[in-house]
DUF1049 domain-containing protein
Amino acid sequence: MKKQWNLILALIVVLIIAVFSVINVDMVTVNYLFGKAEWPLILVIIGSVLLGALLAGLISMMKFYQLQRASKKAGDEIDQHS
């Protein structure tokens, strides 16, 4: 049931971002370290959301693997003491 609620929540967030993006279609100036470019705001919003999601996913995967290694190490120590 928890996975269903997570899916519903994710769909609501995606819908809100999509509506927000479609409303904002004006051209904006994006300043880079090496120059400027004109981009539609919809692409800036969607790109920012995707980069944020990618970064959050990478950080959570790193944390998952750290916890997995710590759990395995603790399990190995318990097996050695038994």
About this structure: Helices lie at 2-23, 41-81. The longest strand covers residues 27-31.
